[in-house]
Amino acid sequence: MPEHESGDSIPHLSGYREAELDQAFAAISREVEASSAALATPEAVEAFRLQWLGRKQGRLKAISDAWLKSAPVEAKKLIGQRFNTLKAEIEQRLEHAEASTGSSALDSEAIDITLPGTRRKLGAEHPLIRTQNELIAIFARMGYSVGIGPEVETDYYNFESLNFPPGHPARDTQDTLVVSGQERKPLRDRLLMRTHTSPVQIHTMEEQPPPIRIVIPGKVHRNDAADATHSPIFHQLEGLCVDTNITFADLKGTLDHAMKELFGSSVRTRFFPSFFPFTEPSADVQISCPFCGGSGCRKCKYSGWIELLGCGMVDPSVFGFVQQKQPAYDPKKISGFAFGMGIDRIAMMKYGIGDVSLMYSGDLRFLEQFA
Ligand code: PHE
Description:
- By secondary structure, the protein is α+β, with helices and mostly antiparallel strands.
- The strands form two sheets. It has a seven-stranded mixed sheet with strand order 1-4-5-9-8-7-6, with helices on both faces. The protein has a two-stranded antiparallel ribbon with strand order 2-3.
- Helices cover 37% and strands 18% of the residues.
- The protein folds into two domains: 18-109; 127-370, 2-Layer Sandwich (BirA Bifunctional Protein, domain 2).
């Protein structure tokens, strides 16, 4: 009888007496022994397993089908006992072979269920996004909504409509990264990376009539060399409020309140004359140093004050540009203020971050501190 065959090659039982059964099972047992003798590779072990224990084609199943099922009731118990012994013998040989060839499923996967599980790290808000959300929440409580605008802008929205005419020296204060291949277009249509979020003031007003109260967070780009306090990509939060009878006092009150919310109620603000082409009058805002309370320290360069943002009353000429699309922005009837602040700088102050490049490094040792 060929060794590696199953099913129909099962010998017939000569009878159901114990001696006859013992003889028949002994013959199978010798067969098992022979076929398990030289199992040297995991593949051979697997073939042995299939040959004997395979659920459909296995020889054990064939034996059970041939001998057990058709046996008279009295013989079933005797056959069953011998069948179980045979099965145990096969399993034992299999185990041995698996151990000696290193082919056990458990071995190869090496799962140690006593080890602690894999800890899945929870994500954390990036300090920039966290600061941005904090700022948005402060202005949301004062009735401001949130807008966004494109990072690739036209010269018209980034400069001209904000009252920076072509060739105006104020353009030089924002070192601009321009999109290449734009020379054939008229200047106003040429694309560039926005240098500030202020162009979104214009988009917003062109899209909706007054009143407006909106903050606009977003990425801006300048061709600046990177150092500890400069990054060619950084973030701003723009603010715009337009309504009837909006005055400089509203601007001062709004920003003073926002800074107190952000840095604590003991923080004071002061406004210095400044210049932006799209606001008149314009101001730079300083806050009393939140680190030393104003007495002077390294962080405020011993001045007691830290400059944080630019702002001013919307220049009537800006309303003039907007009126080409929204006549309701009539500077004789409405007025407004705008402000812009650097989110990176505020985040650095709030969280004691000394180098802006950390914000863009993706270094987990930095980010994990905010988890
Ligand atoms: N856009 C200005 C800047 O980036 C900041 C600013 C915004 C000033 C709004 C006044 C009003 O420097």
